[in-house]
Write a structure and sequence with these properties.
Number of domains: 1
Number of helices: 12
CATH architecture: Alpha-Beta Barrel
Low-confidence stretches: none
Shape: globular
Order of helices and strands: EHHEHHEHEHEHEHHEHHEH
Structural class: alpha/beta
CATH class: Alpha Beta
Mean pLDDT: 95
Helix content: 40-55%
Number of strands: 8
Strand content: 5-15%
Radius of gyration: 17 Å
Distance between the termini: 16 Å
Length: 305
């Protein structure tokens, strides 16, 4: 399979835990399960499935820590102070490192989430405020031994500028990621390409690469089409949703829309001509190991741009 050094990453951890494992996740936070034997076992089953996908195809694997909600504001809602959050972030890195089991071709990526909801912009920060806000989690993940960090489901450029600066100050590589609405624009209305170009300009291109996550390929495509080739060349990872529903519809849903894994794989592969430098493929809300396997296989079978 001609994958051009594609790496496998994981999928929709939280939706798998809620809808497949039937676990309760207050605030959609997975990291508290590290303190629960059943929760750890469920997460181990989840991550092992992606390691198996990589092993079966002879590909490297990138595993994200279950820390998307392990930041200060969400910690308050979950009853976790700064010390508890630092310990949780460290425990998450150790857990995923254990899953990686010494593999030379495995990367542990410390997952950072937005200060807000992830689908709604909410209260905005300046870049300086965002850097100050995210620095504690960035440092915790770095100190725990994460190989790099990701910052997923960002909804506006200033927060991305801040978190990229936080990672640069901490000396750890970062892959930031915007989500988009059904029209391919960020939740604040900014064009995907415009937002990436702005962040790169304001951070001297400090991001290792860019990712787009938590949107169906049909929603990502128009954002990519309106972006310049130079911006598209900066996108190195895709983690897509299984559902074509809008963010508002997904927020209101009480059932899982898992879509068709094979069809999703074809939809992601159709983006390859627009983002030829993507090297990491995975899923987001509604996806599981079936979707990621289909995405990786379809991408490998797609014509090289």
């Amino acid at each position: 399979m001609a994958t051009d050094a594609i790496a496998v990453t994981d999928a929709g951890l939280e939706t798998v835990l809620v809808f497949h494992e039937r676990l309760d996740l207050p605030c959609f936070a997975a990291f508290p399960l590290l303190d629960d034997a059943d929760g750890r076992a469920a997460m181990r089953r989840y991550f092992d499935a992606f390691v198996a996908i990589a092993d079966e195809r002879g590909l490297p694997v990138v595993l994200d820590t279950p820390t998307w909600r392990a930041n200060a504001d969400w910690g308050v809602l979950l009853g976790c102070d700064a010390a508890v959050l630092a310990s949780a972030n460290a425990a998450a890195v150790a857990f995923v490192r254990e899953v990686a089991d010494g593999r030379a071709d495995a990367l542990v990526e410390g997952a950072i989430g937005p200060r807000g909801d992830g689908y709604v912009v909410g209260e905005r920060m300046t870049p300086d405020e965002a850097q100050a806000y995210h620095s504690a989690q960035v440092r915790s993940l770095r100190d725990a031994g994460a190989d790099r960090v990701s910052a997923m489901t960002l909804t506006y450029a200033d927060e991305a500028i801040g978190v990229v600066r936080a990672a640069a100050a901490a000396g750890i590589p970062i892959v930031p990621s915007f989500t988009v609405e059904t029209d391919g624009r960020l939740p604040d209305g900014t064009g995907l390409g415009d937002a990436i170009a702005l962040v790169d300009a304001e951070t001297d291109g400090a991001a290792l690469a860019w990712m787009v996550n938590c949107a169906h390929p049909d929603h990502v495509a128009p954002g990519l089409a309106r972006s310049s080739p130079a911006v598209r060349d900066r996108i190195g990872a895709l983690r897509v949703n299984a559902s074509r529903r809008s963010h508002a519809e997904l927020d209101a849903a009480d059932t899982l829309d898992a879509g068709d894994p094979v069809a999703l794989g074809a939809d992601v592969a159709a983006l390859r001509a627009l983002v030829p430098h993507v090297r990491i493929l995975g899923g987001c809300c509604g996806t599981d190991a079936r979707h990621v396997a289909a995405i990786v296989d379809a991408w490998g079978a797609a014509p090289t741009p």
